[in-house]
Amino acid sequence: MTNTEVVPGVEVLDIRTARISTAPSLSELSQLEYHLGYLATSKDRIYIRLWKNSGNGKFNTDWLALADIEKALAKAEGSFTAEAFAPLFQGRSVNTRYFTIACLLHAGLLARAEEGYVRNTPAELWQELQAAIDGSANLLPASMVQSAGHIVVPVFKTTKSGKKAGRPVGSGANA
Fold it and tell me: How do the domains of the chain map onto residue ranges?
């Protein structure tokens, strides 16, 4: 399978990147690049994804709907801890949860509290996103090279017979 093939039965969302930002990790030992995006067919659906980490620590780069974050936090009254995010990140690197929290803090969607975190609604962020969405923004991030912090799924080139050929596409010399 090539990286451009569509797998039957798997819905591929058309998410457009409206904002690219950099945030310090919670430990402040690395910088995280994250993206805020929107669903092209439903511009009120906002997503976040991690993209790069200047330090160590593997993470997942899948888009996560802010609506799903709200559902996970619906039971939390007042402040909450990182454990409230656990259902969102099952089967993913534990770092993904904490890196996402760092990005949500940076974006202003969360604020620190004595007992953890609280939800926040940053008017400036929503105005900025709305303007980008109204302008049909689709920012292209720098390509992600394989390095520390990325969970890379190898994509093999295939021959006409469907067999894997050679080294994974985009892999380094040590792959």
Answer: 15-169
